[in-house]
Predict the 3D structure of the following.
Amino acid sequence: MRRFFGGVKKWVWVAGTAALAGGCATHRPVAEARPAKVTAVAGVAAPVPGRDEAAFDDIAALTEAMLLVRRYYVEEKPFKDVVYGAINGMLTELDPNSSFLPPQPLANLEEETRGSFGGIGVNVGVERDGVKVIAPIEDSPAFKAGIHAGDTITAVDGKKMEGASMDEAVKAMRGEKGSSVKVTVERQNGEKVEVALVRDDIKMTSVKGVRELGDGIGYVRITQFNEPSAEDFAQALAGLDKAKITELIIDLRDNPGGLLESAVGVAEQMLPKGQEIVTVRGRDGQKPQQRFESGPCGRRFVDLPIAVLVNGGSASASEIVAGALKAHKRAVLVGEKTYGKASVQNVIKLALRPDCAIRLTTGFYYTPDGKMIHGVGIVPDVQVAMSKAEWRQAQMRRMYDEMPGATTGGMQKLVPDAKDEQLERAKEVLKSARILHKG
């Protein structure tokens, strides 16, 4: 059953990709702040006599400005376009992740919720100098062209992305399968390259690579947190349990995030009932607006030793899972510092225009030990650095291991010798813990 908290969809938004979670049960937020009294029609707070007179004057000024645009602008614009533009301008002025969603962008968002869309296949965050690549989506045109986490897309088909909103960036990169697009990419070392891409249908499988690595160690990789993530993860754990694994590696590298509820649904399967997973705090940063804890669930793996792989492409919902398991000492984190994306957006449909919505940043999430990691990230317990070239080869080797025969030509010659140092270190950590436990 799908359930939204507070009547709105709760997203941990990254890169224009988001999805609705499944899970073991309906998760109930604890200590949710009560909303202000609202009117039955518009869903806005009732005016307070005297205090809101200045606000009404400001609204009148906005209305006058829109009427002037409607009357005198050099090109005639439908009044609806003027109004929608004013709403979007108000929201994008707040932060890059807040925006107005008229019918088509809202439909695109719901399309992503189902796990597929047409585009180049990158998860991004908007920064002042352009669009920062958090992680390329596997098997996508961007992935195959060698676009890496940390790259900045400064232009799309010659249009500069500096100062662009999230929706503008996503719209520029989206398109029908088979259509061509050129993106200008700036590497972290300052090198600039122009990459020609052909858009494709981007299908986002959440749980991949489920297998037994030998010596009792199981492996599961979560590429992002979308609608079936929690249920698929539960099925993966059940299968590995039948294989009699004694330890588990969860790979969250280059996982850009997704839905908060989905992250909760995954994390609770490895925590006892009633354990805090994440809190969402608003303006004051003190009192939680919402507190999410592990609720009723099916099979729990609370005693299974776990190592979690993370890197600079692990963001948002990935950091919720990694942060919760680390705070409760349920897992050892191995790899590199995570991205540091901890803002939460609500997608709220308008009562008067149900085919439109606003995406509004309403808070930051905090790990169970009270840490707010937005802009900071999570430092793993065991730090293992990998260069871009090493990580690329490790990804190719992983693809070869997961889909034998899928790689062709020169790629097959490269992957047999590629080594995933972070994965190997995670295996060593689990084996060492096993020896110490027996001792």
